[in-house]
Amino acid sequence: MAPVQVESSQLVSAGGPTSAPAAAVTAAVAASPGVRLSMLIDFLLQRTYHEITVLADLLPRKTDMERKIEIVQFASRTRQLFVRLLALVKWASNAGKVEKCAMISNFLDQQAFIFVEAADRMASLARDALVHARLPSFAIPFAIDVLTTGSYPRLPTCIRDKIIPPNPITKSEKQSTLHQLNQILRHRLVTTDLPPQLANLTVANGRVKFRVEGEFEATLTVMGDDPEIPWRLLKLEILVEDKETGDGRALVHSMQINFIHRLVQSRLFADEKPLQDMYNCLHSFCLSLQLEVLHSQAQMLIRERWGDLVQVERYQPGKCLTLVVWNQQVLGRKTGSASVHKVLIKIDESDCSKPLQISHDPPLPACDSKLIERAMKVDHLSVEKLLIDSVHARSHQKLQELKAILKSYNPNDNSFIETALPTLVIPILEPCGRSECLHIFVDLHSGMFQPMLYGIDQTTLDDIEKSINDEMKRIIPWLLQLKFWLGQQRCKQSMKHLPTVCSETLHLSNSSSHPVGNLSKHKLFIKLTRLPQYYIVVEMLDRPGSPVELQYKYHFLSVSHGLTDPDDGPPTALLLQQFKPNIEDLVLDAKTGKQAKAGDKHKLPADQGPIEPKKPKRTGEVCAFNKVLAHLVAMCDSNMPFIGLRCELSAMEIPHQGVQVEGDGCSHAIRILRIPPCASVSEETQKSLDRSLLDCTFRLQGRNNRTWVAELVFANCPLNSTSAKEQGSTRHVYLTYESLLSEPVGGRKVVEAFLNDLNSVAKLYDCVLDFARSLPEIPSHLNHFSEIRVYNYRKLVICYGATKGSSITIQWNPSHQRFHISLGTVGPNSGCSNCHNIILHQLQEMFNKSPNVVQLLQILYDTQAPLNAINKLPTVPMLGLTHRTNTAYQCFSILPQSPTHIRLAFRNMYCIDIYCRSRGVVAIRDGAYSLFDNSKIVEGFHPAPGLKTFLNMFVDSTQDARRRSVNEDDNPPSPIGGDMIESLMSQLQSQPQQPFTKSGGTVNYPLTSPPTSYHNTVTPSPQMMPTQSPGSLHPASSPSGAIRAPSPASFVPSPSPSSLGISMGQTPNFASPHGTIDPSSPYTMMSPSQRPGNWPGSPQLPGPSLARIPGMSPANPSLHSPIPDVSHSPRAGTSSQIMPTNMPPPRTLPQRSWAASIPTILTHNALHILLCPSPTPGLVPGLAGSYLCSPLERFLGSVMMRRHLQRIIQQEPLQLINSNEPGVIMFKTEALKCRVALNPQTYQTLQFKVTPETPDPWTQEELQVLEKFFETRVAGPPFKANTLNAFAKLLGAPTHILRDCVRIMKLELFPDQTTQIRWNVQFCLTIPPSAPPIAPPGTPAVVLKSKMLFFLQLTQRLTVPQEPISIIVPIVYDMATGATQQADIPRPQNTSGAAASMVSNILRRFSEVHQPPQGDCTIYAAVRELMANLTLPPGGRQ
Question: Which backbone phi and psi does 1245 adopt, to 5 degrees?
Fold first, then answer.
């Protein structure tokens, strides 16, 4: 039994059980292969399971007895098998011992066998081999030769002869031998009977090469010079090739060639005429091969391309091949006896030396020798080419038959046949281009005619093909029909690029009764698209005696469409008129530029006699173009619009000269004799306009002839402009009108638009005439201020300003029947906006009420400087200004009320009225007071306390007297008497005035004030009249009840109170704050209750903002001064403006609630200083913030912050202290007394004075730092309410905490005084946008409860100029433990948090090291430690 491996170290073998070392067991395993016991058990289990599965499948189909027998047999077999397995397992435990004994026994047997074998070999050697063993004698001579000479000359020569080859012959000997062999070959060829087909031979290199083109090539030689020596065939090559179906492979197999080689060689050995017999043998084989190739090509041709169009009728290998083409029965064209064309390819049996013979049935006609010759050869060995040559010759015959039919119909037939592709080219209509000819092809596969004509539909071509294939004579009617079709196509092609629509039919409602119905059936209707009511009808007739020519007649047709809807029904024919028959003569004369003489006869192409036959031209465009028709269309298209315009002008009773020809006769025009008068213009203006108009002409312009240009020539222009185009004695005005496609050219709308433009010219001319009359007497300052840039009778452009960089354009809008004004900038200022855009609507309304250009210029002069200053105010909405951090508020809203009245709304709380006056001054008042009653406040606004005093600081020294009069308004004395009024009036009359005399009138105006039309409906204001104050109408206890003296400021030299700019209407409208503010302003003030609701959660302008009043939108922030100046930017740079040095110190005026309602007079320079951004006066530049604003914004912001502080004191735990000083707020905390008031020197900042309750522990320096911090960081620009809230909470902190905060404020205010720190600090009173997301940005950043939370911004100090790193640090101070730590606020996921972790580590380490004593605060020390030790890695910004 074979050994079986039990485990990795046990084997089951045939011996008895033994125990052996592991090495011996391993050696046994290597010597005899075994099987693992586990594998054996697995096999047995699988076999048992398989037998059970088979029994389960087979037993159900057997009887009960059979099933029992099968089960018993299975149990017996399985039991025996597993018993054997059990015995084997028990025996395997002693298998090692048995294996050891077997190995020892085998080793001993092997040793014994080796010993016996050695003894046997030695005995055999001694008995057999050693008996005959001898030693040869020593080769002493050979050794001496090798040692002395180094060679072995005694080597046997047989060895050399058998191994070393003989030396080759030399090159010269080889050439000599080959030359002699060539001579032998030539002699043999001369003396041998050589077939003529082998004449193509070559003798070279001892060989002769016979070549028969297309058949074979044989190379022969001879083995000696004896004539009886036979030829030897060296090489044989078959030259028969199949280039179409052979795929480049050889047609004859190499074994076949070898067989033929042996056969030919045997003939060369045996025959008397070896070369003749060789040729006959190879030629017969090649012909049979060629015939086979042609047959295979025919089969492939039928299978792949031709199909049933070619058939193999008969094929006999090695004899003949018959092909059938053009079988009409197969094609289905005819039935019965159909013509069959055959091509027979055969081998000539009578003369086998001939090539393949070609014959045709029926025989080919003698039409073209070249075609016949090509069809009778098969040199190319291509059956398809052979068939094509055959059918090509037959196609030429069919085309000749068709051409003979055409010749019998037309003796002057000009058709011709092209042989490259069998085609008959038939000219249809002379002169005929190549693309217009009818091409009739012959299908080479089927032999059928196939017509082709460019532009005709395929259905017609199919009908022509069927007709001429059935009967050739049927082509004549088709040529007649195609002649008229081609005539229509030529007309359509001629109209292709003209504005026309061609149609062969036209449905007319009266076609049966109208002459248009009697026209020929071959006609074409050409509709003029620009004149849809007109048609040109082309009638085509046969010309007798000329079958290939047409006679054209041209008619002009006018139709009328429905009155209501043009598409409602077919049109009605009105006029049908034939054009003159010699119209072609006119065309030729117009082309050559010569007039036709009377009596000259111009022959038409039809009258020039018979046309000589000639081939058609290659380019058919010249032949296809109908010059006469194109001329008629162009003539109608250019003349009919003028006829329509002439009719419209006559219908509207406008005199004209009719249609006239201009220039060299290529253009037309209509001249107007007199323009109609304008109803809204005076008779004098109309006469002046008629006198200045020299010419008025209408012309058509453009390629589409839909653009009318009316040229007006004027003389004696009333204004002289600076434009270079307007310096001549005459002015040309061009009015352009576009006619819509849906309207006829020259319709009524063109005339109406022309009359509207004439009305616009007249309205502007009326205004310009008044302006021209006033120019000699216009003030000099307006002459220098303005310049007439353009006046072209349609618009007036005036440039104004110091540099003439602003422009105003005046023109009449006919659609709105009013003047339209547009503003702009020119020259270097073209990139800026015009400052007067703010009051553009008001200027337009005023000019339409009183169209006076002088008055308009005066207003522009008076308002330019104030508007330049107003435009510098910030108008962009900002977030975070109030406690509503998500609501945007506009800093200033610019609300023009009239051309001279501008209202400024500051954060929807305060209102400032600015009135522009003449002589370079403006009047400013508090707009919160009603214009009619000073005791009433306009709803939605609050009075600005101290505004009067603040404005007086900007009053010029020359206005000192007026300022004193304002002081008297604030401190009214007793009622004045008549002597005071007389003294004031005398001062008024004593001021010099320059008269302004209006031409033709007696009214004089001062040069500093506009005429009365400037404010023609002004009612004097009660404040301006030299009577008692309105306060005298109220009791003494009323705030305005005290009797006031008239203000001298109201008596500024002017003819009327309207010079203040306060235009007042009727008293009922003026009294209501919701009524009309100014009669020149078309807007009404909206009640706050009518404003739209606020959208929750979105930035908006809350409150009763006048920015939502219709027509009072705030000024665009881009509307700055036309002259860009960086120093005047509202937010960038340092302004160079300073307060006037000649201003006296402000006087302390008593506070009157209504004092600011009286206007304060300021010069334009003072207004510029008041409204332009400038540094805060009285502050060190380092302490002032980066927000640059104007003095007015600082004043109003300070007043607003003071008002907000009063509300904060009531909400915060601060105690208010009553104060007798007006405008002063006093309050106190636990340890400090505070006083807040406007700076009495500038009124632009809030002063904060702090006095401690007890001297300790505060120092004077700490108090000054707290005051400076409030003035520069809290109550300064940009005046945020939440900043004040946070500072008030900070003041309520305990003293030790507040002192540490003050020290941090000192580090912020004076960063240069601190050394050995790496960061600058800034105390954040509101949450910045880059802070951790704990609250919305702008929220107060100070929380004071059991713990104190505040924010600091640390900015890295750098010695190199680069962008510093800034981080926001939220700090929490625990009042109970005194620990200062960073607030644990979740940060966004996109931030690294490296800076926050480093700050936390530094503050935690500081708290562990420094344990503060009871009552001490560690805020300052911790912040100082953080500023000194914080170091961020590169890119470590939070």
Answer: -140, 160
Among 520, 460, 514, 447, residue whose Cα is nearest residue 487? 520
Report in angstroms the alpha-carbon separations of 167 from 156, 161, 164, 179: 20, 12, 9, 22
The 3-state DSSP class for residue 1351 equals strand
User: How far from 301 is each of 248, 323, 344, 392, 445, CA to CA, in Å?
Assistant: 18, 12, 17, 18, 12
* Range from 620-624, 775-779, 914-918, 1231-1235 carrying the lowest mean pLDDT: 620-624
Q: Is 586 left (phi over 0), alpha (psi -120 to 50) or beta?
A: alpha
Distances (CA, A) of 440 to 394, 395, 471, 906, 1256: 15, 11, 14, 93, 126
Average pLDDT over residues 734-741: 82
- State the CB neighbour count (10 A cutoff) for residue 929: 24
| pLDDT tens, position by position, 1214-1271 | 888 888 888 899 998 888 899 999 998 989 999 999 998 887 788 899 999 999 999 9
97: helix, strand or coil: helix
CB atoms closer than 10 angstroms to residue 663: 8
Spell out the residues 6+ positions from residue 1396 whose beta carbon is closer than 8 angstroms to its own: 1382, 1387, 1438
Report the distance separating Cα 1346 and Cα 839, nearest Å: 57
**DSSP assignment string, 1300-1316:** HHHHHHHHHH-GGG--S
DSSP string, 911-944: EEEEEEETTTEEEEEETTB-SS-TT-B-TT----
For residues 412-422, b (16+ Cβ closer than 10 Å) or e, as one string? ebbbbbeeeeb
Q: Say which amino acid occupies 824.
A: G
Residue closest to 967 by CA, chosen among 1022, 1023, 890, 1045: 1045
* CA-closest candidate to residue 384, choices 288, 294, 251, 318: 294
Interstrand relation of 707-715 and 730-738 (parallel, antiparallel or unpaired): antiparallel
Give all strands (DSSP E) within 1064-1104, no chain letters: none
**Which residue type occupies 203?**
V
Give the strands of the sheet with 786-791, arranged side by side. 786-791, 796-800, 806-813, 818-825
- Residue 524 and residue 522: Cα distance in Å, rounded? 7
Region of residue 447 (phi > 0: left; psi between -120 and 50: alpha; otherwise: beta): left
Tens digit of pLDDT for each residue in 741-787? 656 666 788 889 999 999 999 999 999 999 999 999 999 989 999 99
**Cα separation of 37 and 42, whole Å?**
9
**N-to-C CA span, the chain:** 85
CB 1279 within 8 A of CB 889: no
* Residue 977 vs residues 424, 1034, 1045, 1053: alpha-carbon distances, Å: 126, 20, 9, 21
User: What residues are paired with 1380 via a beta bridge?
Assistant: 1373
CA dist 354 → 194, 243, 290, 343, 346 (Å): 16, 23, 13, 18, 11
C-alpha to C-alpha distance for 958 and 1142, rounded to whole angstroms? 10
Q: Are 870 and 859 in contact, with CB atoms under 8 Å apart?
A: no
Q: Which residues pair with 558 in a beta bridge?
A: 534, 575
Cα–Cα distance measured from residue 171 to residue 176, given in angstroms and rounded to the nearest whole number = 9
Side-chain half-sphere of 1165: how many Cα atoms within 13 Å?
10
CB 644 within 8 A of CB 705: no
Q: Determine the Cα–Cα distance for residues 1320 and 1312; give it in Å rounded to an integer.
A: 9
| Confidence bin at 591 (pLDDT 50/70/90) | very low
Question: How far lies 419's CA from each of 365, 383, 396, 448, 465, in Å?
Answer: 15, 21, 7, 17, 21
Q: Enter the DSSP assignment of 298.
A: H
- For residue 1412, is the peptide bond before it cis, meaning its omega torsion is within 30 degrees of 0? no
pLDDT for 1076 beyond 80? no
Per DSSP bridges, beta strands 1225-1228 and 1232-1238 are antiparallel
Which ranges of 410-509 would DSSP assign to H, the alpha helix?
A: 458-470, 475-494
